[in-house]
Amino acid sequence: MADDVSASPSANPKRNYTVKNIDVIVKSADVLVRVFTLAPGDRIPWHFHSESQDHYFVLKGKVTIERQDPATSAVLSAGERGLITPGTRHSVANESDSDASFVLVQGVGKLDWLKA
Fold first, then answer.
1. Would 16 be classed as within a structural domain?
2. Is the distance from CB of 42 to CB of 102 less than 8 angstroms?
3. Contacts for 38 with CB less than 8 Å, ≥ 6 apart
4. Is the whole model's pTM more than 0.90, yes or no?
5. Taking a C-beta distance cutoff of 8 angstroms, is the pair 76, 100 a contact?
6. What CATH code is carried by the domain that includes residue 93?
7. pLDDT < 50: residue spans in the chain
8. Percent of the chain with pLDDT over 90
9. Half-sphere exposure of 15 (CA within 13 A, CB side)
10. Structural domain boundaries enclosing 45
């Protein structure tokens, strides 16, 4: 599997970004569930997934999810969810003044992270 994140603070050598914390909840061949904590200003850069979907469930704070083609931006608050379909170029950021956290459920399918 292309994703192997378990340390905190989190920097994956397969990716070029760092966020405050990532806790792995479930990890299988085609499903990955993690809780992300983003400090103010943390950003997951533009990327996409070839097969899997991203399901975002915001637990705390506000998370900004941007998409390319067509360009859209959504700010999700605690209790809200977002969906990114396979092949959609997107980035995720905490543009607020306090920590934000969300559950990210990825799957079902090949788990990859392709720089956009």
1. yes
2. no
3. 19, 20, 44, 61, 63, 92, 93, 94, 99, 100, 101
4. no
5. no
6. 2.60.120.10
7. 1-13
8. 83
9. 22
10. 10-115
| Both tokens assigned to 52 | 């899997």
Please, is 14 exposed, middle or buried when counting C-beta atoms within 10 Å of its C-beta (0-12, 13-18, 19+)? exposed
User: Which residues, at least 6 apart from 39, have a Cβ–Cβ distance to it below 8 Å?
Assistant: 19, 20, 94, 99
Closest of 60, 84, 81, 61 to residue 72, by C-alpha: 84
**Nearest 5°: phi and psi at 14?**
-85, -10
Distance CA 3, CA 15 (A): 9
4 occurs within a structural domain: no
